[in-house]
């Protein structure tokens, strides 16, 4: 396909090309160079949330994790790659939030706090996804100091035995970490921590007391049948009810 640059410096794209790519005027493009060759990228859509996976490694060996069947080696995002991402922030003028999460545990990356600060220092919201094991008082204090907007903690099983069977870890350790977070969070107005995973309703009823309170933890249940998926159920428990949301 050939396009022509006219004397006024305008490029005109064939109508068939624009229709096939679902593009319509007026439209802005980003102009890059790679090995001396120009690259045009349409500024569409305007990115507001950026997901970053800083590691594929994890400090747990969950029975159900798909990493158990991977052959790829564990990898950490290098500083050069991260710096390249940060250098392109001016090209994302409508970016509002950066989310550190994926198959790996972000807190295992040795530079995770500096990475978070790269975005919070620019006034961007930062969300951190974690299994909660490494949310010790030192890390939690640093996350609060950096102004992390949201911390998402994933828990599979609200009973210690179930949790240990699935994840091989100590549930009480995570609860203690969240209790410390609750104490630091009291004077702030950040959103509640979110706890997701395969948690049974009966388990939540028995275990909610140590976890809830001013921290405002929300449990999300993955219902097995369609009727449960279609509903939105509310647990009963004092001044801080637990919301059970279908996946």
From TrEMBL:
Pfam families, alphabetized: Radical_SAM
GO molecular function: 4 iron, 4 sulfur cluster binding; catalytic activity; metal ion binding
Keywords for this protein: 4Fe-4S, Iron, Iron-sulfur, Metal-binding, S-adenosyl-L-methionine
Domain Radical SAM core: start-end pairs: 44-247
SUPFAM superfamilies for the chain: Radical SAM enzymes
Entry keyword annotation includes Iron: yes
Coiled coil: none
UniProt-listed CDD domains: Radical_SAM
PANTHER family linked: RADICAL SAM DOMAIN PROTEIN (PTHR11228), TUNGSTEN-CONTAINING ALDEHYDE FERREDOXIN OXIDOREDUCTASE COFACTOR MODIFYING PROTEIN (PTHR11228:SF34)
Protein name: Radical SAM protein
Upper classification of the organism: Bacteria, Bacillati, Chloroflexota, Anaerolineae, Anaerolineales
